[in-house]
Amino acid sequence: MPSERIFFMQGQLSKADVIKRLTQAVCAGESGLDAADVLAQVMKREEGISTTLDTGLSIPHARLEELEGFKAALAVLPQGVEEPAGPHLQIKAMFLFLSPAKQMFFQRHLQILSQLAEIFKPDFISSLAACHSAAEAAQKIAAEE
Predict the structure, then answer these.
(1) Which residues pair with 72 in a beta bridge?
(2) pLDDT band at 87, cuts 50/70/90?
(3) For residues 143 and 131, what is the distance between their CA atoms, to the nearest angstrom?
(4) Tell me, what's the pLDDT at 20?
(5) Is 29 strand, coil or helix?
(6) Phi-psi region of 94 (alpha: psi -120 to 50; beta: other; left: phi over 0)
(7) What's the rounded Cα separation, in Å, for the pair 60 and 98?
(8) In this structure, are residues 61 and 49 in contact, taking their beta carbons and an 8 Å threshold?
(9) What is the DSSP secondary-structure string of 37-50?
(10) How far apart are CA 78 and CA 67, in angstroms?
């Protein structure tokens, strides 16, 4: 993951705030991606079932017709963000993931979700929170892939 798509976020944020900021980051400079439309699709998916795991990782995602490749951004949340759908769940990392809706990408979509759940365990998320820069976090992630 490129360091320009990794964000350390502090302060009183809601899950929706973080999703919105990550969506804006992914859509910036991407022709054909409307941030408001993408956000609406991601939030609709989140209404169906929460994508927050008990490890502290949240993986909001959507499959979009207009995409030709995968897009992602990561928020590291050292203070944690409350998961509104689950009691006492704290989101410590959020990985926004967008994939093409075409059938040929679906298997890879599932593989990526599985890899994220495998890599982003509590100890790894804590090590990301201790990083001093997005570049350092990107190196840690690359070492795990």
Answers:
(1) 97
(2) low
(3) 14
(4) 96
(5) coil
(6) beta
(7) 9
(8) no
(9) HHHHHHHHHHHHS-
(10) 31
CB count in 10 Å sphere of residue 124: 18
User: Where do the domains of the chain lie, and which CATH numbers do they carry?
Assistant: 3-144 (3.40.930.10)
Reported as a single tens digit per residue, the pLDDT across 53-86 is 889 999 999 999 888 889 999 999 999 998 887 6
Given the structure tokens 């360091």, which residue do they identify?
Answer: 3
State the DSSP string of 48-59: HS--B-TTSEE-
Mean pLDDT estimate for the chain: 90
Dihedrals phi, psi of 95, to nearest 5 degrees = -115, 100
Tell me the pLDDT tens digit for each residue of 10-35: 888 999 999 999 999 999 978 788 99
* Number of residues in the chain: 145
